[in-house]
Amino acid sequence: MSACVSTERAYFSAVRKIEEIERAVEQLPLNDFANLAVWIDQRRRQLAVFPSSVNKSQGAPREHNAFLNGYASQDEGLHDDADASRGERAHEPMGAGRRWLNPGADPVGDLIREREQDDKLDQADERS
Known about the structure:
Structural class: mainly alpha
Number of strands: 0
């Protein structure tokens, strides 16, 4: 039993130390924080410590910047840049299918009424 108590004390002591470190780091000036972040990253690499979300058996964490590093100016146009006219282009097809509807048809209203009816049936089933 004493080994369990000792382990528990060690755990809570470590947690308190981590909390103290967190409070100290939060109070660092921005420049010191940036230096600390660089040091931690270098130290992590030296110790070959992987982020907890990465399975160590898979090797080093995957880098996702290959596309950005391989991007060349001649590739312009191969991706969709967000620009001011994007919203306008998104609204262009709105209502384009209305010409095929019968006069007075309201497919959105029909869908809403269908869903309301389904909800009523589901509620009736839950009560049964």
